[in-house]
Amino acid sequence: MSCCCGHDHEHEHHHEDATLCVCGQPMTEGAGHGRSMGRTSFAVAGGFLILNSFLLEWLFPRQEFASEISAMLGAVILALPIIWVAIKDLRVGRVYMNELVAMALLAAFAGGVFREAGIIAFFLLITIIIESRTASGAQRSIEELIRLTPHTARRLVDGQYVEGEVLDLKLGDIINVRPGENFPIDGEIVSGQSAVNQASITGESLPVDKGVGDEVYAGTMNLSGSIDVKVTKVGNDTTLGKVKEMILAAETSKTPMVRIIDKYAGFYTPTILMLATLTWWFSNGDMNRVITLMVIACPCAVVLATPTAIVAAIAAAARLGILIKNVAHLELAAKVKCFIFDKTGTLTKGELEVARLKPVDGIEPAELLLAAVSVETASNHPTALALQRLAKEVGVSPVRGEEYRELPGKGVEAKIQGVECLVGRPAWLSSMGIALPHDEKEVEGMSVVVVARGGKSIGWIGFRDQIRPEAAEMVRSLKAEGIRQCSMVTGDRTAVAAMVASRIGIDDFRGDCLPQGKVEYVEHVKEHNIVAFVGDGVNDAPALAASDLSIAMGAIGSDIAINSASIALMTNDLRRIPLLITLSRKSASVINQNLAFGMIFVICGIVLSVFGQMTPIFAAILHTLSTLIVIFNSARLVRTGEEITRAENTAALNR
Question: What is the pLDDT of residues 297-308, one digit of tens each?
Answer without folding.
Answer: 877 777 777 777
